[in-house]
C-alpha cells in the first residue's frame, strides 16, 4: 500500500510494534505515522511486527532505531564525530554509549575506524546521536567496532531489503559458497568479512552486481564470482 507522510498505517494493533525506517511514533498520541512517501511494509514474526516504509532516496536521514554503519572522523573530550554517508550531516557517538563504559574505561577508537551502531536520538535542528550498546540490556547486541573486512556501498532500498526481508535470498546464496560475518546499515553500507580475502572480494563483487539485477539472476552471478576467483588461484598454483 502506497502511503504519504501523515497517512494512517494499516497493521495489527494488538501486537507489539518495532518501528523501521520511514515511520515515527508521536510521543503525545502514540500514533505511528509515515514520514516518507513510499510503500508500507509489515514484517510479522509472530509475537511482534516491524512496520516501515520502503522508499527511494539517495540521501540518508537518521531515524531513531535505525541500524547504521559509520566512520569515525574526529574525536572530542566526551564523544566521537561519525560520518554515516557522504550526503548526510555527521552524528555524535558518546564515549559512554558502549558496554561497560565509564570515565576510566573509555573506548579507544581512532579516525577511520568503522562502527556498527543504532540511532538513539534524531531530533530536528539537533545533531543526531548513535550508540554501540543495547540501552535496555547494557550488552553490545552485535554493535561496536568493525575490524577488517570490506564496506560495500549500496542503495538505501537494497540495504533495507537485506535487513528487513527475511525471504530476500542474497545472504543465503552467499552462505552456500563461504562463511562470513556481515553487518547491514540502512544508511546504504554493508560490512562483510570472510576468513580468506579472496572470499571477501567475491562477496563484495557479488553484492555490488546483484543490487542492480533481478533476484532470479543472483545465483548465477554469485557462482560466477566465486568460480572466477577459484580459477585464478588454480592458475597461480
TrEMBL record:
UniProt-listed SUPFAM superfamilies: Eukaryotic type KH-domain (KH-domain type I), Nucleic acid-binding proteins
Record domain K Homology: where: 149-197
Signal peptide residue numbers: none
Domain of life: Eukaryota
Broad class of the protein's primary localization: nucleus
CDD domains on file: KH-I_Rrp40
Xref: Pfam families: KH_6, Rrp40_N, RRP40_S1
Residue ranges constituting the Exosome complex exonuclease Rrp40 N-terminal domain according to the UniProt record: 17-59
InterPro entries per UniProt: Exosome_RNA_bind1/RRP40/RRP4, KH_dom_type_1, KH_dom_type_1_sf, NA-bd_OB-fold, RRP40_KH-I, Rrp40_N_euk
Keyword RNA-binding: yes
Alphabetical UniProt keywords: Exosome, RNA-binding
Compartments where found: Nucleus
Keyword ATP-binding: no
Record-given protein name: Exosome complex component RRP40
Organism encoding this protein: Nakaseomyces bracarensis
Amino acid at each position: 500500500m502506497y502511503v504519504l507522510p501523515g497517512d494512517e498505517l494499516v497493521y495489527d494493533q494488538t501486537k507489539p510494534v518495532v518501528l523501521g525506517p520511514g515511520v515515527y511514533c508521536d510521543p503525545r498520541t502514540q500514533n505511528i505515522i509515515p514520514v516518507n512517501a513510499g510503500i508500507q511494509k509489515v514484517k510479522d514474526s509472530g509475537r511482534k511486527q516491524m512496520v516501515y516504509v520502503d522508499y527511494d532516496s539517495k540521501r540518508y536521514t537518521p531515524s531513531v532505531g535505525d541500524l547504521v554503519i559509520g566512520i569515525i572522523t574526529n574525536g572530542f573530550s566526551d564523544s566521537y564525530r561519525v560520518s554515516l554517508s557522504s550526503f548526510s550531516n555527521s552524528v555524535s557517538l558518546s564515549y559512554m554509549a558502549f558496554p561497560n563504559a565509564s570515565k576510566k574505561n573509555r573506548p579507544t577508537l581512532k579516525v577511520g575506524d568503522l562502527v556498527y551502531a543504532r540511532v538513539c536520538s534524531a531530533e530536528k535542528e539537533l545533531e543526531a546521536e548513535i550508540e554501540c550498546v543495547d540501552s535496555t540490556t547494557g550488552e553490545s547486541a552485535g554493535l561496536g567496532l568493525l575490524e577488517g573486512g570490506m564496506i560495500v556501498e549500496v542503495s538505501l532500498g537494497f540495504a533495507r531489503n537485506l535487513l528487513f526481508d527475511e525471504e530476500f535470498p542474497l545472504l543465503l546464496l552467499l552462505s552456500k559458497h563461504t562463511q562470513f560475518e556481515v553487518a547491514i546499515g540502512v544508511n546504504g553500507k554493508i560490512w562483510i568479512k570472510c576468513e580468506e580475502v579472496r572470499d571477501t572480494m567475491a562477496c563484495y563483487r557479488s553484492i555490488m552486481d546483484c543490487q542492480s539485477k533481478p533476484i532470479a539472476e543472483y545465483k548465477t552471478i554469485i557462482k560466477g564470482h566465486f568460480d572466477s576467483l577459484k580459477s585464478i588461484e588454480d592458475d597461480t598454483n
